Amino acid sequence: MPLASSPYEWFRLAQKTWELRKIGRQYTLRNVVIGRKVELRRGYASRSDSLWGVISEVEIADSIQDFFAKVDFKSVIPVAESRQQAETMAASILGIDPDSQSVIGFRVTLD
């Protein structure tokens, strides 16, 4: 799973434990399942610094707002100072409206 530099570093430093994606394509309950092994890497090309883990929990929500009502925003975006800021940042990263598109989040327990 490719990540931008900051989220990759947050996982590497154990500051981030959840990944959030908009539902679609490979990010559905069919593919995001508890127990599945995942590779986290910086960007698409870099495999030398891969982190490996297992999906240990999955949450689906109708919106980013609903997701952060279930999961602590700091576990997704550790630099956010408030839930509102985390919702805004997540919506910007995902390119969606924070209260109108379904999302899937999953906890990654690193090896």
Question: What does this protein look like?
Answer:
- The chain is an alpha+beta fold and 111 residues long.
- The chain has helices at 5-12, 64-70, 83-94; strands spanning 2-3, 18-22, 37-42, 51-61, 103-110.
- Strands 1-3-4-5-2 form a five-stranded mixed beta sheet.
- The chain is globular and about 35 Å long.
- The two termini are 15 Å apart.
How far is the N terminus from the C terminus? 15 Å
Helix proportion range: 10-25%
Overall pLDDT level: 93
Order of helices and strands: EHEEEHHE
Give a nutshell description of this structure.
It contains 3 helices and 5 strands; from the N terminus they run E-H-E-E-E-H-H-E.
Features:
111 residues; alpha+beta; five-stranded mixed sheet; single chain
Please render the helix and strand layout as text.
Blueprint: E1 2-3, H1 5-12, E2 18-22, E3 37-42, E4 51-61, H2 64-70, H3 83-94, E5 103-110
Parallel strand pairs: 1-3
Antiparallel strand pairs: 2-5, 3-4, 4-5
